[in-house]
Amino acid sequence: MAKVLTKYVCQSCGYVSPRWVGKCPNCSEWNTFVEEAPSPIRLSKKPTGAASKIEPVPMDQLDREDVPRVRTNIEEFDRVLGGGLVPGSLILLGGDPGIGKSTLMMQVALQLGNQIVLYITGEESVRQIKLRAERLEASATKNILLLAETNLDLILDVIERGTPDLIIVDSIQTMYRPGLESAPGSVSQVRESTALLLRLAKTRGIPIFVIGHVTKEGMIAGPRVIEHMVDTVLQFEGEAHYSYRILRALKNRFGSTNEIGIFEMHETGLREVKNPSEAFLSERRYGTSGSTVVSSIEGTRPILIEVQALVTPTSYGMPQRNTTGFDYRRLSLLLAVLEKRVGLHLGGYDVFVNIAGGVKIDEPAVDLGIATSITSSLRDVPVDSSCVAVGEIGLGGEIRTIGNIEKRVQEAAKLGFKRIVIPQNNVKGLKANGEIQIVGVDRIEKAMEELLG
Question: What is the rounded distance in angstroms from the CA atom of residue 57 to the CA atom of residue 174?
Answer without folding.
Answer: 38
